[in-house]
Design goal:
It is a single chain. The protein is of the alpha+beta class and 396 residues long. It has seven helices and 16 strands. Strands 7-4-3-2-1-8-9-16-14-15 form a ten-stranded mixed sheet, with helices on both faces. Helix 2 crosses helix 3 (122-129) and helix 6 packs across helix 7. The two termini are 35 Å apart.
């Protein structure tokens, strides 16, 4: 996420950014996070004020109870907060990440996560919240979203969260040059205790080196003794921010090198279908705001498009182009080829069909069917819309 919602004009661009969640079995999975695959809202009686009384739906239980009711009348909530409420569902993503790891690696419980293009690092925050043994690393090019995470997401976990989660400001194509970011001196990590690949326990101490700038720590990722990651993920279609095959392969090689030598997985999501290659406008209503996904014309030669996310709070407040992405839409065969070239041993595709964007029922309100699960597939006939996880398995 760039400043003012616009993406920085660099090769690594991103977006993203709640409540403790327990991870149930497959039958209880929430849908995962993605730009238009968030959990469907359901009808609910509302006692909100006049500005929100006409809203039709309540968001699935990922949002903190009462968060939206606390907004001041006439005040536009943070774009990051709106994004998390409308787009993200970390519980579903984490459930699938655990499932993929146990299926393709196994032998141990995954504890060490890296979230690339993490934005507000909501997924990482939920990851460490659910298990005190877990650690997380977030990497993003946008400093504003990382600082927002520290002040609004990680702060809710407390001091223990700061000791188990590190946020790095930098480019996924140059991860070793990324700098550790912390909110203030009192939040600095005093020790990150992890089980290293060799089974020993280690501790890292990060100290303030620039008193004039308490938000920027002069420690690079290359200088930190980090554990091999069990899982690395890049969600919300973030890999579409990488426009060249060369960059995509380079990024995959960086993820491969960061995974545990005892075996690990890289997981990304991608979308497609006939609707992904034309102009498209979708919306979803929540009690206090409406979320809009707008896709501009699709260039079939470069396979590039521009996506904009808008929010409307009440009847008059409109936050247009809160987030804007210039994407290169990769096909699944291209992604698989690049993962193989980068050195991943096996690649698996999990896919689900999305509701038809042109059906009359979706004309005003687009909702995913929560009963439709992702399934591992080797063949899948083209349709109007689909979402997929692509899983790369390494070091086994």
């Amino acid at each position: 996420m760039g400043k003012s919602g616009k993406k920085p004009r660099e090769s690594h661009r991103q977006g993203r950014g709640r409540r403790a969640s327990r991870f149930g079995g497959e039958d209880g999975d929430d849908l995962p996070s993605s730009a238009y695959d968030a959990p469907p809202p359901h009808h609910e009686d509302s006692s909100d004020d006049d500005e929100t009384a006409t809203a039709e739906y309540e968001h699935e239980g990922d949002a903190e109870a009462g968060e939206q009711d606390q907004w001041q009348v006439g005040a536009m909530p943070s774009k990051f907060h709106l994004y998390q409420l409308s787009v993200q569902s970390p519980k579903g993503d984490i459930s699938y990440l655990q499932k993929f790891f146990l299926m393709y690696v196994g032998g141990r419980i995954p504890l060490h996560l890296q979230e690339d293009f993490c934005g507000t690092a909501l997924l990482s925050t939920e990851w460490i919240r659910a298990d005190a043994r877990r650690t997380a690393i977030g990497l993003d090019l946008d400093l504003e979203s990382l600082e927002w995470c520290l002040e609004n997401n990680l702060s809710k976990i407390g001091a223990d969260g700061y000791s188990r989660m590190l946020l790095f400001h930098g480019n996924v194509l140059q991860p070793k040059e990324a700098r550790l970011v912390k909110q203030k001196v009192s939040d600095l990590v005093q020790g990150l205790h992890v089980d290293n690949d060799n089974g020993s326990s280690g501790s890292n101490s990060y100290e303030q080196s620039d008193p004039a700038n308490p938000k920027c720590i002069a420690h690079l990722m290359s200088q930190a003794a980090l554990p091999g990651r069990d899982i690395i993920c890049a969600f919300n279609y973030s890999c579409c921010c990488l426009h060249s095959r060369k960059d995509l392969v380079l990024y995959f090689r960086h993820t491969l090198n960061a995974l545990s030598k005892r075996g690990g997985i890289f997981v990304m999501d991608v979308y497609g279908g006939a609707s992904s290659e034309r102009k498209l406008r979708l919306q979803r209503k929540f009690p206090s705001f409406t979320y809009f996904w707008e896709q501009e014309e699709f260039d079939i030669i470069s396979r590039q498009t521009r996506i904009s996310l808008h929010f409307q709070a009440g009847k008059k407040q409109m936050l247009r182009h809160a987030f804007t992405y210039h994407w290169r839409l990769w096909s699944i065969p291209e992604i698989k080829d690049c993962l193989e070239e980068a050195g991943f041993k096996s690649i698996h595709v999990w896919i689900r069909e999305m509701p038809n964007t042109q059906s009359s029922g979706n004309a005003k309100e687009y909702n995913a069917d929560r009963d439709v699960k992702y399934e591992e597939s080797k063949r899948f006939n083209q349709g109007d819309a689909w979402n997929a996880y692509v899983v790369g398995v390494a070091n086994i």
